[in-house]
């Protein structure tokens, strides 16, 4: 089985992980508990051993609870990552709070929800502008030293100084930025920094929230509860240009008798410097399709054709989300 190492730890993970945000049902529509539990099981059955959740995935920890329910009997076969530093305010607005006391409390709650005694990989979900990074890092370092977490990661860092400040206090084993064929700004500074410091890179939005799976028709009518329509890339000119781009990728996927989602995910995990693609899913067929990308090897001709399509499309103006 193809496994990749997390930093310098003894944790080895599949290059495709299941992203457990959609099953929280906050921005995704038509999510049911039965589908969500079946999706986690399908991921496991498809060769995925790495699961990405967070304290704030669900207003009351629903994602962590479901992950724990399905994976507890398989504890020794899986690597569970969760995150701290973002919660929900009384008005159900996301709240960044990475003060040490909050991190300690959220860690204990996450362990309880997951029903496990140690978190394999624990991320600071995002820097908290009101708390010095060194203070948040100090709290994570204590959890590492106390054996409550096996490894520490960071997410949504945008400046090298943030990485340096954190790493000086607590060793970073993994980074979690967004990245996909059209949103590649981490290639300039963040990927080289991670490579130099033996930090694994677990990327979110590999399918650009489902757009690059190619199943949203040009005349798609959004459900008002679908959170994606607020992003500029799902609107106007950007929408049309991305559909034109997908039409150029389709023949490349067809050469391998594979789907667009498989092509896009395979490209992501074959990029230099990328360790894992975190593929969100809310139904078994979606995660099975993402997992199938692990058996697709792209040829130099495929990569050249994809590069050309990306160049013609041009980069998307990013707005990092925190979910
Ligand atoms: N650290 C952070 O701040 C942060 C931020 C975002 C995400 N993440 C992590 O990264 C993971 C991935 O991000 P994401 O879930 O937002 O986006 P994503 O993986 O780019 O897209 C997931 C969405 O794509 C659609 N999809 C997935 N497989 C598909 C398939 N085979 N065919 C058609 N559609 C498919 C589904 O949406 P529909 O079925 O609704 O169309 C699914 O909810 C998250 O689950 C989470 O674990 C972390």
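-> sequence recovered:
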């Amino acid at each position: 089985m193809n496994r990749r190492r997390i930093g310098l730890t003894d944790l080895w993970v599949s290059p495709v992980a299941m992203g457990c945000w959609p099953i929280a049902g906050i921005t995704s529509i038509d999510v049911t508990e039965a589908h969500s539990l079946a999706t986690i099981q399908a991921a496991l059955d498809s060769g995925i051993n790495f699961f990405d959740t967070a304290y704030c995935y669900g207003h009351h920890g629903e994602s962590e609870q479901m992950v724990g329910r399905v994976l507890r009997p398989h504890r020794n076969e899986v690597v569970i990552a969760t995150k701290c530093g973002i919660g929900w305010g009384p008005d159900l607005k996301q709240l960044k709070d990475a003060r040490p006391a909050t991190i300690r409390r959220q860690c204990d709650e996450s362990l309880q929800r997951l029903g496990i005694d140690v978190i394999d990989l624990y991320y600071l979900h995002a820097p908290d502008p009101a708390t010095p990074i060194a203070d948040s890092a100090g709290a994570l370092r204590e959890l590492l030293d106390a054996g409550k977490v096996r490894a520490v990661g960071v997410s949504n860092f945008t400046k090298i100084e943030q990485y340096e400040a954190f790493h000086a206090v607590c060793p970073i084993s993994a980074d979690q930025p967004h990245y996909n064929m059209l949103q590649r700004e981490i290639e300039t500074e963040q990927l080289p920094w991670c490579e130099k410091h033996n930090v694994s890179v677990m990327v979110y939005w590999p399918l650009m929230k489902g757009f690059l799976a190619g199943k949203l028709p040009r005349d798609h009518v959004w459900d008002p509860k679908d959170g994606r329509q607020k992003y500029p890339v799902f609107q106007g000119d950007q929408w049309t240009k991305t559909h034109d781009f997908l039409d150029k990728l389709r023949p490349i996927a067809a050469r391998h008798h594979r789907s667009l989602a498989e092509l896009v995910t395979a490209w992501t995990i074959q990029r230099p410097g990328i360790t894992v693609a975190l593929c969100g899913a809310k139904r078994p067929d979606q995660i099975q399709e993402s997992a199938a990308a692990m058996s697709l090897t792209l040829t130099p001709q495929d990569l050249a054709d994809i590069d050309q399509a990306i160049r013609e499309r041009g980069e998307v103006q990013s707005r990092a989300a925190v979910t």
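Residues 4-313 form a domain with the TIM Barrel fold (CATH 3.20.20.100).
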